[in-house]
Design a protein that fits this description.
Helix 4 (about 130-140) packs antiparallel against helix 5. By secondary structure, the protein is an alpha+beta fold. The chain has helices at about 20-25, 30-35, 80-90, 130-140, 145-150, 165-170; strands spanning about 5-10, 35-55, 60-80, 100-105, 110-115. The longest helix has 14 residues, at about 130-140.
Length: about 180
């Protein structure tokens, strides 16, 4: 797969939801469907962790932390514009600056940008409403994302959040057929 000069966003939490992305970009969801290429991709050397306190969520939301033994399976939105990323930046000021990363897509390394929070709280309480929302989302996304989420997501203290991860992942809907996007 050729590497594009366009901007790519790797999403690992609620931004994996096209409707959430569209809302934060202030565009109709149909615009996301029409213009962006959307794929399941893997970011190696990181894991999800609930350690970003957000007052609007009344608790901690997902963030990424460096972990050489882990990886994060999420959604890659390809061909975004700088203006679109700027709209997202205004929605996620606590996750700036974005970090340039390489994600794996169909065996190739692809450049992307990802939101990483700088201010974290290892003693924060997880936002229960946010957690319910993200769990429902990853269940809808299918087996690859769900299994990775349940097996490798940590609580604020860094300990595994979902000990029952493998059993829950086994009950996930199947992954999209080859060639389909997330």
């Amino acid at each position: 797969m050729p590497i594009s000069n366009c901007l790519n966003l790797f999403a690992y939490g609620t931004l994996m939801d096209r409707d959430e992305l569209a809302c934060n970009m202030v565009v109709p969801a149909s615009e996301i469907e029409r213009r962006l290429r959307v794929h399941v991709a893997e970011l190696r050397g990181y894991r999800r962790i609930y350690n970003k306190p957000v007052a609007a969520h009344d608790g901690a939301v997902l963030n990424l932390t460096v972990d050489k033994e882990s990886s994060v399976v999420g959604v890659l939105f390809m061909d975004m514009t700088a203006q679109e990323l700027g709209m997202l930046d205004s929605s996620y000021p606590g996750h700036l600056p974005r970090k340039a990363v390489q994600v794996m897509l169909e065996g190739d390394k692809v450049p992307a940008t990802v939101y990483l929070a700088k201010e974290v709280d290892e003693a924060a309480q997880i936002s229960s409403a946010y957690e319910e929302r993200v769990l429902e989302l990853v269940r809808q996304m299918g087996a690859p994302i769900l299994a990775n989420f349940l097996e490798q997501t940590a609580g604020p203290d860094g300990d595994p959040r979902y000990a029952e991860g493998k059993a829950l992942a086994a009950a996930a809907p199947p992954a999209p057929e080859s060639g389909e996007s997330a």
